[in-house]
């Protein structure tokens, strides 16, 4: 663990002086954080850059801004600042009885803070988009619900107000029941409950379905004497525990643990000398970290909780341990006021009444391995079912006001497209039918016939029993060979060829495959594994002819190579029989039985001395300025002719082969990536950086069961001819059979499709196939939009947008495979605009792109 006190004291003193910082909150993307407190004559909300806190070099770099924005709209002290879960809005509440909601203004340039030197400029501009007025006393805390459906605020007027975050300033409800100042709020992670804590020595749990009280907990607080400025309670990310501030046990200050099951209060966090002011759970759920080399052992997930107190100390607890993970005494000069974790779960900011903040950096070895969002959602679904916020989204979206004109345009286009698809088939069934035909019978007919054949019996007690049927997979996809293009030119054989049989490549390599003396044979590309020599040409403008044994000179039998490119002929002699040849628009490669590989330019000039290989060549390929050779001892090599270097050097295929497996297809992409397809349906690519990678598997259940029919573009043939589609041997008719005939639960079908699309995306990236990468990226984004997967969609948009502010340590690349990432993001925006649920995400990134364009 690392503890840092950011060196912003000069700025702190300038803006807050010796005034306390009452609240701190880290932005969901981790690039900035907000603080709230007391200024000289007003309340202050400030937004800071996170980079100088995390990295010393950015802290010393004057070109990296520390403060991003200062807002002075509050008339009195600011008690709480909270970012919305999507990071688009910031809510603040203060002693002026107001709740303000802030949003970044995209079209306003940097400005100078009023009354300060020119160095203190607002790098970002945030404007107050709404002011929520209902409280009659100081606002002490605000909290966004999961999925940002509601915003709750509490006040010293003893009330809690629930605001409709979709339609500010509309109020959903005012919760009354506390008889003292309400000083803390927290939502449970699935949106079913809201908890509040007040000075009336009670903690109340409210149901969100009807906004009535679910539980009133008072026992742990009966002994409490005195008050604290805030009572910030927190709910664990698994939803099982609610931890309060300022409780007492045997006259000692504690943080009370309330179990969701029956609201029992049998456990607490102890050890602090004065009242607990703030509790904050880490957003991640953890599992025990596995040691290197040890076999994975099942372990119970656990949570991490930080506790701050008036005694100026901080303790961090793991629910799997009986004692705190760490305790830091005298961290500040005055009481701790607020705690905020980074979304990654490894960083934490703490603020104090002394006007300073501290940053704690943890490691995975200390906390454990965090569960993925999918695993976390599975826990929620298994325990609670779907979140109320999720289930009510559709109903709320139906009444959502479209704020962005571009969003409105995309919604209208989507509606028009939907009507155009529905109207022609108005008299038909609403369920789409498969057009695939197997043996003259559609898959839909096959399914109906199978259901007719089901066997029904009755048990002795009268119950009905149906004997299950085994429905085999019906795959209508065809294997389209990469080498189906017609061969320009012929191969002339005038002597017998001698080659070492290569059983690893193909068991058909036998002595019987030798050509008969004097026989002239013209081969097609599909024959190159069953006969030798062979020719492989990618460019139809190039033709190659080989004639073996044209003459005998000094005991050597000469072979002649003739090539024609764009009507220009050239020829050369080789001192050995040619086994195979290949050509592209840039180079021609010829492999002879003396185990030498000769490489010529497109005009016939020898580029290198012959390259000696470990054994005879079984296949050779040329693509652009790259050459690939596959030998009879199952080794693979690739050369970059222009840069005169080897990309893959004698890479052995033996690790991926077995006695029953043969090579059925090989391919070299235009980017110099070699691929090999095996008889077991698996395809591999090879590179120096990634070594051996599995690209495709025809027996892969993910590919067979993935259903992304609704996400396919209407006209895009770019992915049907690329190397990935070639090696997969089919055009991937999405959701062909398995998704239609099986009764797979939706959440499982969703996970399968998501895993498959991400595998396709990574495979296209590894193959450096630009058009296929773009094709699968758009399908992936459309699937995320249709399924409402905001977390993954935001991560994707964030990666494509890149950093808005310059940072010396940024490793973001503006392009991928030659495609500009921000241009790709522009292509994704209309897709995002199809779902009103992502209206704010759409507007956020649209404005960010517009701002970057103007810079």
What's the helical proportion of residues? 10-25%
Rg from alpha-carbon coordinates: 34 Å
Low-confidence stretches: 9-16, 114-119, 387-396, 424-443, 469-532, 733-743
Could you tell me the mean pLDDT?
A: 78
Q: Name the overall outline.
A: elongated
Number of strands: 55
Total DSSP helices: 17
Largest sheet: 5 strands, antiparallel
Biased composition (Polar residues): 428-438
Subcellular location: Nucleus
Domain CAF1B/HIR1 beta-propeller: 15-367
Protein name: Protein HIRA
Task: Describe this entry's structure for a reader.
The chain is an alpha+beta fold and 855 residues long. Helix content is 19%, strand content 34%. Strands 20, 21, 22, 23 and 24 form a five-stranded antiparallel sheet that branches. Helix 13 packs antiparallel against helix 14, helix 14 runs parallel beside helix 16 (821-832) and helix 15 packs antiparallel against helix 16 (821-832).
Observed structural traits:
855 residues, WD40/YVTN_repeat-like_dom_sf, 17 helices, five-stranded antiparallel β-sheet, HIR1-like, nucleus, single chain, five-stranded mixed β-sheet, alpha+beta
Concise summary:
By secondary structure, the protein is of the alpha+beta class. The protein is built from 17 helices and 55 strands.
Protein topology:
Blueprint: E1 2-4, H1 9-15, E2 21-26, E3 32-38, E4 43-49, H2 51-54, H3 56-60, E5 67-71, E6 78-83, E7 89-94, E8 98-104, E9 111-112, E10 121-122, E11 126-133, E12 139-144, E13 150-155, E14 159-164, E15 171-176, E16 182-187, E17 193-198, E18 202-207, E19 213-217, E20 234-235, E21 241-243, E22 247-249, E23 252-259, E24 267-270, E25 276-281, E26 286-287, E27 304-309, E28 314-318, E29 326-328, E30 336-341, E31 347-352, E32 357-361, H4 364-367, E33 369-370, H5 373-384, H6 388-391, H7 393-397, H8 405-422, E34 437-438, E35 441-442, H9 443-452, E36 455-458, E37 464-467, E38 534-537, E39 542-553, E40 556-565, E41 568-574, E42 578-583, E43 587-592, E44 596-601, E45 611-612, E46 617-623, E47 626-631, E48 635-640, E49 645-652, E50 663-668, E51 674-678, E52 682-687, E53 691-697, H10 701-705, H11 723-728, H12 738-741, H13 746-766, H14 770-787, H15 790-801, E54 815-816, E55 819-820, H16 821-832, H17 839-854
Helix pairs in contact: 13-14, 14-16, 15-16, 16-17
InterPro entries: Beta-prop_CAF1B_HIR1 (IPR055410), HIR1-like (IPR031120), HIRA-like_C (IPR011494), HIRA_B_motif (IPR019015), WD40/YVTN_repeat-like_dom_sf (IPR015943), WD40_repeat_dom_sf (IPR036322), WD40_rpt (IPR001680)
Organism: Neogobius melanostomus (round goby)
Keywords: Chromatin regulator, Nucleus, Repeat, Repressor, Transcription, Transcription regulation, WD repeat
